[in-house]
Each structure stands twice: as C-alpha cells, then as structure tokens.
Amino acid sequence: MPALGQHGGRDDHTGLVEMTETVWHGGEWQTARPLKIVHVGDFFFNLKKRAPGQFSVGGKLSNGLIRNGHHVIDFPYRDVARASGWFGSRKMGRHHLFKVLKEFLAFSAPDLLLLGHGYMIPPSVIDELRHQQQGMMVVQWNIDALFVDDNARDFAARHQVVDASFVSTAGPLVRKLVGSRGTVGFLPNPVDRSVERGQAFALSDTEADIFYSCGNPARLRTICGQDWHMDQFCEMLEEKLPPSMRFAYAGVRGQPYASGPPYAAMLEQSAMGLNISRRADHYLYSSDRLSQMIGNGQLVFMERQTGYDRLFSEQEMAFFSSMDELVELLTQYHKASSARREAARAGWQRYHALFNECAVADYLIGYTLGTLDEEAHSWRHLTQI
After folding, report:
1. What is the per-residue burial (b if ≥16 Cβ within 10 Å, else e) of 349-361?
2. Where is the Spore protein YkvP/CgeB glycosyl transferase-like domain positioned along the sequence (predicted)?
3. Spans in the chain with pLDDT lower than 50
4. Who's near 23: CB < 8 A, 6+ residues apart?
5. For 26-62, where are the E strands, in sequence order?
6. Which of 232, 245, 255, 248 has the alpha carbon at shortest distance from 329?
7. Which residues does residue 21 pair with via DSSP β-bridges, in sequence order?
8. Are 48 and 84 in contact (CB under 8 A)?
9. Residue 112 in contact with residue 367, Cβ under 8 Å?
10. What is the largest CA-CA distance in the chain?
C-alpha cells in the first residue's frame, strides 16, 4: 500500500475543512480519491421514535465526512433489523440485518466500514465482514460511558477485530481496557452549525436562565464527590439560588423528557446549562449534551475533574469543584448578563472551531490512516490514549 499524506486548512468562517489527501506514487505526490464509506449507525430518524433524532452524533459525523469530500452511505442498522423482525423487534431481526449488511458491502465495495456503537453487530460478524471484503478498513466509534461495565466490555471486544477505535473518554484508562493492539483515539462530541442552530448568547433575554435535562433522575450521579438523585439535586439548587432564577427542565422535577423541536427550543432559549454526567472522574468523558448546549450558545457549567479545563479556559466555560462554587458561579453570571453572554460566546466560538463536524471527521480519518500533520488538531496531544 502506498504511503499516505494529508495537507489541509480550515476556513475560519465556515469551519469547513479544505482537505487534500495525497499518495506517494511513481516518485511524486498525487491526489488520492475520496473514500467510499459505509456508515453503520443511528442518524436523524429511526422507526422506533418516529421523530427526528436531530442531534444524532452519527448524523453529524456523516455530515462532516460528506462535507470533507467523502462518499458516505448511511446504513441505519437498527431500522434494518426492526423492519424484518416480528412486531418490529430489532432483536428478532438480527440475522436478517447481518445478511443484508454482508450483501450490501459485497455490492458497494467500500474503502471503510464505520461502525457507530453497533452493539447488535458482534465481533464474530465483524470478522466475517473483514474476510469477505479484503482490503476494507473497519473503524468503530462510541460515545457511551466506559464506567458502565457492559459498554466497556462490548467496546473492548469489538476493538480486537477493527483497525481503529474512537471513544468519548480519553487517557490511559482506555488503552488499559482494550489492550496494546490497534489504534485508539479520543472522539470529541461533534457540533454542527446546521444542527445546533441557536445562539442563546445573542439574545437580550432568554426564556430560562438554567437548563438541565436528564433521562433517569433516579439513577444516582456523583457530583463533587456526593451521590445525588437529580430531583433532589435540582431542588437543592433552587433553594440556594436567587428566586429570580428560571429553570428549564427536561426529565426532572416532574417535567417530561423532551426531544425534537421542544428540546431544541429549550436549548436555544436557555442562558446557562448544567452538563452533569453520571460521573466526572473519567478523563474528558461527557454525554453528547455538552455539544448540544454549548453548540446552541449556552454558558456550560461542568466539574473541573472532567479535565475540560485543559481544553477550555475559565472565560469559555464555567468550571466548579464544589457545590458552593457552583452556586456562586451561577449566581454571579445570573446577575452579570453581559459577562455571561461574553463567556458563552467565547465557548461557542472555540467549541465550533475545535470540534465542528468537519474537523472531527477529518481527525477520525487522518488518525486512522496515520496521515495527520503534527500541528493538525493540536488538542489531540492533550488526549493521548
């Protein structure tokens, strides 16, 4: 296989990558063809929800890959399984899914198979696909928490049969989990201006001051060393914060879980957002709500222990190490709207510059192929695995 090289720049206004991949052939550099990529994952629609999952990481990654010039074919694996299973059951449609995927890869002959999560596709099937499609690279990405045993086990098992793995946790813990073989990289939660369309910092008055969304408030979250039921955590904040604070809740304090346009409206109309995952002690792990909140112009509050203070300054995000500090910062920015809007704008600009869909897609491909320049995506040197 000829050596690969890559040279690229970014338009500061659009965020699009100007990427030229080259191969050394015949004694000179020649422009390489774009990759054909079959992307297996969840995108902006699925049959179960029957509504756009409009902030889907899979959809944003496909957008970035396409905007970088690659030919991307989205393969919604859960829907393929549901469509063939009895009563719409994806579990009962698993074997049909495997058959369809094998047939489609044989027909399309992609350069790269990109697996998003892909829990339904076990390592044994991935291995069969590799043998069937000689020369096809296989890459997995995953944004699930590795402190959940099932997620960690499945991610590590698939890593043994792919060429590269990307996960939204960084640091040596990941390499220890998967072993010494293969390429492993940190996957930032991507933002996409065509998806995250709001600019809450630009509004003179938002509908809410603080946004928080939670899928299961009874599942304990460890915040500053203390375990919390999130209904009780939010109640505690309400008691300590000024009475003028307006809260936008989804899934907590008796409010229904939000998705689709109502959820987008909450993101776009809230001044500040609490980014609280189940734990903060896994380096750079965050749920993908981080990109949704900061991508829509909220000032994001998160624990320093996450390590994001190595990537963003105190003038771009609000970091706290104790409950008292969190309450103090929320109160301070609530009273100083100009300072809050300035910090939110700075965080929005930096996150969109570092982790937009084109940049993340460029990094994923370049890191897999080993073609990134030393200066490209300099943040990656702080995330070594």
Report:
1. ebbbebbbbbbbb
2. 233-355
3. 1-20, 22-31, 87
4. 2, 3, 4, 5, 29, 30, 32
5. 28-31, 36-41
6. 245
7. 6
8. no
9. no
10. 72
